[in-house]
Amino acid sequence: MTTLAAALLEGLKEHGAREIFGIPGDFVLPFYKAIEESRILPHYTLSHEPGVGFAADAAARYHQGLGVAVVTYGAGAFNLVNAVAGAYAERSPVVVIAGAPGARERAGGFLLHHQARSIDTQLAVFREITCDQAVLDDPGRAPEAIARVLRNAREQSLPVYIEAPRDLVGARTAAVPTLACRPADPGALAECAEEILARLAQARAPVMIVDVEIRRYRIEAKTAKLARALELPVVTTFTGRGLMEEAADVLAGTYLGAAGHPEITRLVEDADAMLLLGVIVSDTNFALSQRQLDAQRTMLAVGREVRVGHHVYRNVPIEYLEDELVRRTPRRNKPAGRKRLVLPYPRGLAADDRPIAPSDVAAAINDLFDRHGKMPMAADMGDCLFVAMEIDNTALAAPGYYAGMGFGVPAGIGVAVATQRRPLVLVGDGAFQMTGWELGNCRRHGLDPIVVLLNNRSWEMLRAFQPESAFNDLDDWHFAEIAPALGGTGERVTTRREFAAALERAVQNRGRFALIEVMLPRGRTSDTLARFVAGFKAVRAPAPA
Ligand SMILES: Cc1ncc(Cc2csc(CCOP(=O)(O)OP(=O)(O)O)c2C)c(N)n1
Ligand SMILES: [Mg+2]
């Protein structure tokens, strides 16, 4: 027998959690005390719960395991909602552990502080953005409930919610068992694999499109092996950017429809068979397609289901499907027959006194990675995410589908903790105003991310869509000057020479975060965002009368 807190912490670790991000409060103080004193998992406190959620989400993506966010009841948990909604949308398994009132308080007759509508309103809200929930109000049944919820988080790669009443944290209970994820339905698996291979064999120009689930289920290498065996060119979706960083031999690039590289667009839109693996079929991924995802050429494996044309195969997890496809594919011992696409990324930035354009940021970072090796990346929402599309394919955590701002800097903290490597973060000034201040926690946690802040004193992405609105103008906050007060270094750069030199200095200086504030003109976006906006407007333009 053990305590409920220790059983929960050991269970989290058993199921793949590697650290905890959180902000305590009185309803979760006893549990937070157990976190600190048990040392079962390292924990990192941040300054605002949105940052806690983004950091846990990014850590889960890079661990390919569970992220953990611990917050207090009500005010803390409700602050976390947007980050968890984004994790749900992008299939990131974040475990939310929220404190709650004890039994006596519930029956005490008072309206409790932090309570919104009813005491269970918090549970009701999180039911909407998690795939399973458990309220640990019965120590005897808690281990099974925790095991079920954590298995579902891993199996479905979605957030889950655990409510921990503060009066039961020390209650005696049993250890949390580990429940195995459910296997594939063997009949559906065999039939599905057979139909997919038959369709691919008849195709003249097939293509493989990959997205978030191949990382969530740890099958990037397996997917590359499958692509080689099937001699398929591979592209990622917008949300899948950064996947298969190690498989440059099969990965052609990122499909962005009308906003993308014409050769990638043709590869997908001329394909007569498309194998979509782990793909979120969202507007950000396919709204700019010039040819729809018609059923007769589309095979989609996502969320433990596979749709082949109009056939639906249930209970076929993607990792089982890939194993079966590889098993049924004859070993190929000749080099791939198809010419591999090698896209040119901007490099060799002229270190001159010309002002910096957004796409220069990508060139400078490509040059930096060529000199010093790639760094794990995080990006926020804004033009910075489109600049990331111009950086040679590098592991990336970004809100490509949910598209919520504020993700970048806290996600960079999550990446630094999860990988124990120095990350590079891309963020705009508007998003930095939301959560960039979490950098102030780096010194005490021994983290030193490099943050490239694109400061155009503007909500430039909105201006690109609606240039007539003056409300997109932001003030100049001189972020670089604030960096030393937060424990880091800050440099404001206005020319390409200054930027290249600042990046090099940042790489050389370890031990403190480096904030490089890149001054950009309003009205100027990256080439990729410019094409995205043009494509979006064209697709949305009213049909000619
Ligand atoms: C939480 C949230 N609130 C508002 C919005 C809506 C939005 C999408 S893009 C954008 C402007 C981003 O400005 P920033 O300076 O960061 O980047 P840049 O465009 O390169 O100048 C806004 C306000 C979103 N997506 N999420
Ligand atoms: Mg901006």
Protein described:
With 545 residues, this protein is an alpha/beta fold. Helices cover 39% and strands 16% of the residues. The chain contains 22 helices and 21 strands. Strands 11-10-9-12-13-14-15 form a seven-stranded mixed beta sheet, with helices on both faces. A six-stranded parallel beta sheet has the order 3-2-4-5-7-6, with helices on both faces. Strands 17-16-18-19-21-20 form a six-stranded parallel beta sheet, sandwiched between helices. β12 (273-277), α12 (283-286) and β13 (298-302) form a beta-alpha-beta unit. The longest helix is centred in the middle third of the chain and has 17 residues, at 186-202. The protein is globular, with a radius of gyration of 24 Å. Magnesium ion (MG) binds at residues 382, 428-430, 456, 458-460.
Largest sheet: number of strands, sense, barrel closure: 7 strands, mixed
Q: What would you report as the Rg, rounded to the nearest angstrom?
A: 24 Å
Number of strands: 21
Tell me the fraction of residues in β-strands, as a range: 15-25%
**Proportion of helical residues:** 25-40%
Question: What distance lies between the first and last C-alpha atoms, to the nearest angstrom?
Answer: 74 Å
H/I helix tally:
22
**Spatial order of the strands forming the largest sheet:** 11-10-9-12-13-14-15
| Helix and strand composition category | alpha/beta
Distinct small molecules bound, one entry per kind: the ligand Cc1ncc(Cc2csc(CCOP(=O)(O)OP(=O)(O)O)c2C)c(N)n1, magnesium ion
In round numbers, the mean pLDDT is 95
Give the uncertain stretches in residue-range form: none
What oligomeric arrangement do these chains adopt? single chain
Indicate the overall shape. globular
